[in-house]
């Protein structure tokens, strides 16, 4: 198994998670605050489009980063010219070909969700094209209800891969450059904060592919940009530039570039696009958040998500009262009330008091053209069985 490798724009990581072939994950080195985890999609030749392995590895890496004692904030970025171009079109075409006999309607292509979900069903490893074809060979005579049940289970599993971003205790920052299409929009809307470079573009592409987006955009985007704007973007599938993305609230800031080079720097060199700049800005933003009391940051994320999903004010007030009754008393709060200023690493910033942070040092360890035909960004589905959902904390 060949592990994914960093390029000259990947930040230097103090520790790198092992065993991942389609992404790079670890903790950013050389940041005074520490605690900044980093996950980089590493399929630049396919514009970081999601295929079987990436659907499996993405939630697994998030869980591993979030469980790490040193993680306070997580950054999501992508290698190459694009942040994420949705599903890998080659895999999508193979699924379409495999599903053709089962559609029952001549000349009609099944949805990406249908195509991806039926093939391989409950596979725990990425199937080959031959395996996908074999898996669908018997479908025409199968029970239609059973087929649809399989489709539904797989769509739910793929939704769960992106919902892992919300289940992380630590806030997640999306650092977007280049194209962010289809499944890429599903991904960033599940993040807590989004920033982008000047060259970033966004597109909810699914309607052009005759499907309804099914992995989170239609549920989360209205809460970010408003119902009317979300309806516009989803029904027209138009491309939104960085300036408009900022104006409508899809991103909180746009990171400029200067003379075609990155305004931020990376360990390995300068950028010819906005990637280096937006990653550097994301690290700065993450450092600011990481400097805050950890339990307060985690609680704020959880309460805001609860209020979004349970919009009644009375319920939200009851929820935050319950949360703070469990975690309000912490070493960080004692330090604040004692006049210690609350800086990380100051007096009382360890374990011992009720709700203390108890941090432990990290274990150290060691493209082509415009991408047409690489990742269509449309469907966000694949034939995989991803990790089981974790309970919310």
From TrEMBL:
<comment type="similarity">
    <text>Belongs to the enoyl-CoA hydratase/isomerase family.</text>
</comment>
<dbReference type="GO" id="GO:0006635">
    <property type="term" value="P:fatty acid beta-oxidation"/>
</dbReference>
<protein>
    <submittedName>
        <fullName>Uncharacterized protein</fullName>
    </submittedName>
</protein>
<dbReference type="GO" id="GO:0051750">
    <property type="term" value="F:delta(3,5)-delta(2,4)-dienoyl-CoA isomerase activity"/>
</dbReference>
<dbReference type="InterPro" id="IPR014748">
    <property type="entry name" value="Enoyl-CoA_hydra_C"/>
</dbReference>
<feature type="region of interest" description="Disordered">
    <location>
        <begin position="344"/>
        <end position="393"/>
    </location>
</feature>
<feature type="compositionally biased region" description="Gly residues">
    <location>
        <begin position="344"/>
        <end position="358"/>
    </location>
</feature>
<dbReference type="InterPro" id="IPR029045">
    <property type="entry name" value="ClpP/crotonase-like_dom_sf"/>
</dbReference>
<keyword id="KW-0413">Isomerase</keyword>
<dbReference type="InterPro" id="IPR018376">
    <property type="entry name" value="Enoyl-CoA_hyd/isom_CS"/>
</dbReference>
<dbReference type="InterPro" id="IPR045002">
    <property type="entry name" value="Ech1-like"/>
</dbReference>
<comment type="pathway">
    <text>Lipid metabolism; fatty acid beta-oxidation.</text>
</comment>
<keyword id="KW-0443">Lipid metabolism</keyword>
<dbReference type="Pfam" id="PF00378">
    <property type="entry name" value="ECH_1"/>
</dbReference>
<feature type="compositionally biased region" description="Gly residues">
    <location>
        <begin position="368"/>
        <end position="378"/>
    </location>
</feature>
<keyword id="KW-0276">Fatty acid metabolism</keyword>
<dbReference type="InterPro" id="IPR001753">
    <property type="entry name" value="Enoyl-CoA_hydra/iso"/>
</dbReference>
């Amino acid at each position: 198994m060949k592990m994914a490798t960093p390029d000259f724009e990947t930040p230097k990581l103090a520790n790198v998670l092992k065993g991942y072939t389609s992404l790079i994950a670890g903790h950013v080195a050389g940041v005074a605050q520490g605690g900044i985890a980093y996950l980089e999609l590493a399929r630049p030749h396919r514009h970081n489009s999601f295929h079987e392995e990436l659907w499996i590895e993405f939630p697994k890496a998030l869980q591993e980063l979030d469980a790490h004692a040193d993680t306070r904030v997580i950054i999501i970025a992508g290698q190459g010219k694009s942040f994420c171009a949705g599903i890998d079109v080659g895999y999508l075409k193979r699924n379409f070909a495999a599903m053709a006999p089962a559609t029952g309607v001549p000349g009609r292509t099944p949805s990406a969700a249908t195509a991806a979900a039926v093939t391989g069903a409950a596979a725990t490893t990425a199937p080959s094209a031959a395996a996908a074809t074999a898996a669908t060979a018997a479908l025409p005579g199968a029970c239609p209800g059973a087929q649809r049940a399989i489709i539904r289970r797989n769509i739910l599993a793929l939704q769960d891969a992106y919902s892992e971003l919300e289940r992380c205790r630590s806030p997640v920052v999306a650092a977007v450059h280049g194209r962010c299409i289809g499944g890429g929009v599903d991904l960033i809307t599940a993040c807590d904060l989004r920033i982008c470079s000047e060259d970033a573009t966004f597109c909810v592409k699914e309607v052009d592919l005759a499907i309804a987006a099914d992995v989170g955009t239609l549920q989360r985007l209205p809460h970010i940009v408003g119902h009317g704007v979300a309806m516009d973007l989803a029904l027209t599938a138009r491309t939104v530039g960085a300036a408009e993305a900022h104006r409508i609230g899809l991103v909180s800031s746009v990171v400029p570039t200067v003379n075609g080079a990155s305004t931020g720097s990376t360990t390995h060199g300068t950028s010819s696009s906005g990637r280096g700049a937006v990653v550097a800005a994301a690290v700065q933003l993450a450092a600011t958040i990481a400097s805050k009391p950890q339990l307060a940051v985690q609680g704020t994320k959880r309460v805001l998500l609860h209020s979004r999903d349970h919009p009644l004010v009375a319920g939200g007030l009851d929820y935050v009262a319950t949360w703070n009754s469990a975690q309000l008393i912490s070493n960080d709060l004692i330090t604040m009330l004692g006049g210690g200023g609350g800086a990380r690493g100051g007096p009382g910033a360890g374990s011992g008091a009720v709700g203390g942070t108890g941090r432990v040092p990290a274990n150290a360890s060691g493209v082509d053209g415009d991408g047409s035909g690489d990742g269509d960004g449309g469907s966000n589905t694949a034939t995989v069985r991803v990790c089981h959902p974790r309970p919310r904390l």
